[in-house]
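Is iron/sulfur cluster placement plausible here? Inputs below.
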Amino acid sequence: MAQTLVHGGVQEVSGNGANWTSPDYLDEQQCLSSMERVFNVCATCRRCLTFCATFPNLFDLIDESEGADVSSVPKSKYLDLSDQCHLCDQCHVGHCPYSAPHTEQINFPGIMQRAKAVKFAQGLVNTSSVIKPHSPITHLAGIPVITAWVNTVVASPVGRKVIERYTGIDSQARLPHLAKRTFRQEQSSLIARGSASASLVQDHGQVPRQVAIFTSCYVNFHEPEVGRDLVDILQHHGIECVLPEVDVCCGRTRLNAGDLAGFAEAAKMSVANLAAHARQGYAIVSPSPLCARIFTHQLPSLFPADENIQMVKQAFWSPSEYLMALHGEGALDTEFNRSLGVVNYHEPFFGGSHLDIARHTEALLGLVPDTQVNVIKGSPGFGGDWGIRRENFPMAMKIGQTVFKRMADNSPDYLSADCQLSGRQIASAIDTLRLFQTPDKKPELAHPLTLLRMAYGL
Ligand code: SF4
Ligand code: SF4
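Reply from A.M.:
I modeled the complex. Tokens:
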């Protein structure tokens, strides 16, 4: 639970921004004092050196300062460190030995989130440079002429140079194509108009046999195939699927920009509708681990007393968690038509989710006969959208190198990741770096749901 610490008379937010509405939260001096306290602990620990660019930058600032200690680093450099952080929580939950219940109660992502918010409040974040993957252009997915035009530009080296110039997205970074038809267009018959079914009766203690799918912008606009695989698998098991009427962006990019109010506003647009389904006993399942994390971790941290948000959190499942729970009740079909061979699977790189996605996905794919699932842990470097920016791309490729190499090892038949965006970036980096040991056998990238659907022969 979030607590307020007092260090040298300075109120410090130790939770993940839980009291962000307090006027003190945006007080720059208090924020800087908190950062100094945290940096002093990190300077002697240094366990997180390889997680992202934030820590190498921090330690360089310390080591290159006049006194080679935190007190010699000009405080004017502190806030900008948060630009390197994409709030993955990997340096915190289950990792930092100084996090609560330790008396130091270090929460590095918490203080980075606060620094981002202070910068945003001071107008120091150039919002036009904040990457908006769900820009107005993205929302034109599904319109054939526009989709074809955008995809042609994205595929052309000249087009990519133009995009880089105007958006700051590195021309070498992989950009997703727009779908010819969005997932919600394809599956419009599943959209639950009005409120959730009032006639639904939930058997307590059982896995719900009704699922509301929170699509995610990525699946909706870029890879509807993944959503279709989820629907096919659920319907194969006789599960009722619906798409909530309101399904808008969870606001992750606003959170990363420090716009906490904007993030809350965006995320809450979907919450009321999702909570209505949760109240009716629906499981809420999203094929996007990043969106799942917003609803199960970041939003509940910011609004611990909001009943709807807490209800949505409790009802949320990852697809593999849900299917393994069905398996626990003997309700999962274990008759598969084919094996998958060797699957190199990348574990989502973030801490703090109760969904335990990788463990469930490994167990689920492991049910398929003659299938070997190798779970690869570590940072793929990109951190959502952070690594595709021109100024971050070389560092992202460096940070992700170990993961890229491990994913290419053991002559896999498939590369896979629950976060399809990360999976695409990893596959693209492996190609760019020519890491496959057997160039004549190029493994296909396939989402775990796609692999499962294939194994069933659906
Ligand atoms: S966040 Fe924790 S584990 Fe990481 S360097 Fe700082 S004190 Fe060490
Ligand atoms: S939360 Fe993630 S990106 Fe931010 S400092 Fe920690 S490891 Fe780095």
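Short version: The two ends are 44 Å apart (CA to CA).
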